[in-house]
């Protein structure tokens, strides 16, 4: 299958992560010196998927692909090391990808969809979550899905249908050396998303805005700055 390429230079795409992953380890205040902190780091390394990936790699991820000595490297590396068992739209369980929106509202709609889906599973729509925006730039040629028909299988709103199709497409594209895909947001009409297949493509990572999402008894949610 032949897909068009789009040459882009975008300074600030938006990825949202829970603030729980954007602050020093909660055990840090409990230690008295660097030696104790090193012990805690060693213990964390036994179970941290990111640290394991950085040290010895994972089945679908070579440690030489990951970032080192760059601000935001832990967030970038974690995006590729941690996956859902079902994968996501353009990555399977063996290897992650960096997903971001071209707009804040698009990133918010995407994370809110997944959070709401988790609340549906437990049938409990009372929740609040604070997300930190990570801004990142991208430059180069990416496969462009924005002109695909609305019924393209990898753009279906139903994950059970879209994810296997999108993952198969991504595997095929990666075999040809694809950097990733630009695609229309399925969760926000008019929004644009990017999925980058390689860690080194994520450039100039820095913090953006902080947002709070609140659910008060239904699938609907409100958004405020935090």
Structure, briefly:
The protein is of the alpha+beta class and 226 residues long. The chain has helices spanning 34-45, 49-55, 73-81, 104-122, 159-175, and strands at 5-18, 98-101, 126-144, 180-184, 192-196, 203-216, 221-225. It has one domain (5-225).
Account of the protein in words:
With 226 residues, this protein is α+β, with helices and mostly antiparallel strands. The chain is built from 5 helices and 7 strands; from the N terminus they run βαααβαβαββββ. The protein has helices spanning 34-45, 49-55, 73-81, 104-122, 159-175; strands spanning 5-18, 98-101, 126-144, 180-184, 192-196, 203-216, 221-225. Strands 1, 2, 3, 4, 5, 6 and 7 form a 7-stranded mixed β-sheet that branches. Strand 6 (203-216) and strand 7 (221-225) form a beta hairpin. Helix 2 (49-55) crosses helix 3. The radius of gyration is 18 Å and the shape is globular. The model has no long low-confidence stretch (mean pLDDT 88).
């Amino acid at each position: 299958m032949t897909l068009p390429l789009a040459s882009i230079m975008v300074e600030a795409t938006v990825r949202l992560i829970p603030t729980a992953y954007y602050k020093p380890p909660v055990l840090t205040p409990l230690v008295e010196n660097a030696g104790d902190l090193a012990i805690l780091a060693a213990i964390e390394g036994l179970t941290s998927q990111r640290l394991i990936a950085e040290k010895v790699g994972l089945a679908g991820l070579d440690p030489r692909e990951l970032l080192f000595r760059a601000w935001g490297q832990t967030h970038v590396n974690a995006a590729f090391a941690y996956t859902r068992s079902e994968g996501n739209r353009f990555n399977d369980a063996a290897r992650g990808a960096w997903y971001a929106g071209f707009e804040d509202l698009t990133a918010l709609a995407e994370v809110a969809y997944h959070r709401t889906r988790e609340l549906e599973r437990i049938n409990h729509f009372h929740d609040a979550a604070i997300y930190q925006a990570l801004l990142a730039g991208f430059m180069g040629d990416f496969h462009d899905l924005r002109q695909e028909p609305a019924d393209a299988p990898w753009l279906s709103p139903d994950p059970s249908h879209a994810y296997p199709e999108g993952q198969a497409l991504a595997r095929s594209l990666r075999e040809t050396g694809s950097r990733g895909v630009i695609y229309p947001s399925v969760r926000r009409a008019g929004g644009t998303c990017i999925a980058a297949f390689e860690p080194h493509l994520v450039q100039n990572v820095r913090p953006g805005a902080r947002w709070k999402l609140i659910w008060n008894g239904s699938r609907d949610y409100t958004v405020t700055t935090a």
